[in-house]
Design brief:
extended, mainly alpha, single chain
Length: 417
């Protein structure tokens, strides 16, 4: 009896999923087994696409300024109706403003860096003169009071120049390759920066097209209800992320300007470069002002310890002002994170990606926390579970309904303990 083969759609789909699952598992095990090669390939891929990642980040950072110029100035003030022309002008003006601000900062900062290097050179001359004066003083002391045994001190001090010279001989041969590799890295970095800027410009020009394509892909993969919910969640996450970045940027600019004004009033040396350091590091919540204060205090210690103490007091006052008044008024509840989670985000972000990770860790954890809370709320709503908060203790308790008479009754779980 002939048996005709007929394709079973159900078992055919199961077989496809099984084969795909086996292939993916095999690849995953292979990647884990050769972890060193996997990380090398991963780093190579990241290095290759880094200009595009940086370009995306630049576009994301400049986009609020582009929207502000396009919608608030060109559309409402200048009455420019053509959207493409308006966006093109807004992008051009935004990059002129940003690049101009960076150029102005460099014009003021670079001369102060040169002056600081010159001051360090003068410090070396002072140290040499001080060394000679100390040796003359010890020789006179040894002649006047031979019983003190000053000769042993002089032998130790006389060995310092030889020790420094020996250290320099060991460092200089290693320094030349470092300088070469650093030069190559600088050239590569400049080329990647130019590519990143070009990528960011094209992304801002094609922002609407990219968003539209993304929406089509989401609705092609998900059904209408889930697609709409997914886009709403993405919009909320974007508001959290961009709200923190823009708010923290404005906050840091204000802190940097205030620092410059106060330091200028007290005639503190290197006021511009110190204010720039304070403003940039202030982007990192909580620890940023102190991270910026350390190199600034060290710099001022070379000049005059009184300026270092004065700056330490100023940065402490600025940090308190920023944490208690300025930051909350600008950022508000943009992240919704408690201080413990902010510290956790900074610690983990710093371990993973250094200073940039310390900055981006906070909005990233805030987005994760928002998604987690939304997921929990959706699950509780699906199970018809509601919680209420005790106004006195701030402890939530489960609200239960009496199924016999359909009358609501609140049961505090803490009262059962």
């Amino acid at each position: 009896m002939d048996h005709k083969f007929s394709k079973n759609r159900k078992y055919y789909t199961i077989s496809i999923y099984a084969v795909v699952g086996i292939i993916v598992s095999a690849i995953f095990i292979r990647l884990i087994y050769n972890w060193a090669d996997t990380m090398y390939i991963f780093r190579q891929i990241v290095s290759m696409v880094m200009p595009f990642i940086v370009g995306m980040f630049i576009a994301y950072m400049i986009n609020p300024l582009v929207k502000l110029i396009s919608e608030k100035f060109l559309l409402k003030v200048c009455k420019l109706k053509k959207r493409k022309l308006r966006v093109a002008i807004a992008i051009t003006l935004s990059y002129i403003i940003v690049i101009g601000a960076i150029a102005v900062i460099l014009v003021f900062v670079v001369p102060q860096i040169v002056d600081s290097v010159k001051a360090l050179g003068g410090l070396l001359d002072t140290a040499t003169t001080g060394y000679k004066n100390v040796m003359v003083f010890l020789e006179a002391l040894a002649e006047k009071y031979p019983q003190l045994g000053v000769e042993s001190w002089m032998e130790q001090i006389e060995g310092i120049p030889a020790m420094l010279a020996d250290t320099a001989k060991k460092i200089i041969p290693k320094l030349v390759p470092k300088v070469f590799s650093t030069s190559v890295s600088v050239i590569t970095g400049l080329s990647n920066t130019l590519i990143a800027i070009m990528v960011s410009i094209y992304m801002l020009f094609d922002k609407t097209r990219i968003v539209n394509t993304g929406k089509k892909v989401i609705y092609a993969i998900l059904d209408k209800k889930r697609g709409t919910a997914f886009l709403k969640t993405l919009s909320e996450c974007n508001d959290i992320f961009s709200g923190f970045i823009v708010g923290k940027f404005i906050d840091s600019v204000i802190i940097g300007i205030l620092c410059f004004i106060i330091l200028s009033i007290f005639r503190t040396p290197c006021a511009v470069i110190i204010s720039v350091i304070v403003g940039v590091t202030n982007m990192i919540p909580y620890f940023g002002p102190f991270i910026g204060a350390i190199p600034s205090i060290i710099l001022l210690l070379f000049i005059d310890f009184r300026y270092a103490i004065l700056f330490a007091i100023i940065i402490l006052i600025l940090q308190q002002f920023d944490g208690l008044y300025l930051g909350p008024s600008i950022l508000g509840e943009s992240t919704g994170l408690r201080p413990l989670w902010v510290i956790f985000a900074i610690t983990v972000g710093g371990y993973v990606a250094g200073p940039i990770g310390m900055f981006l860790g906070v909005p990233t954890v805030a987005v994760i926390a928002h998604l987690t809370e939304a997921y929990i709320e959706a699950k509780l709503k699906k199970k018809s579970i509601e919680f209420k908060k005790n106004e006195e203790t701030d402890i939530v308790y489960l609200e239960e309904k009496d199924e016999t008479n359909n009358k609501g009754s609140d049961v505090d779980v803490l009262q059962k303990e």
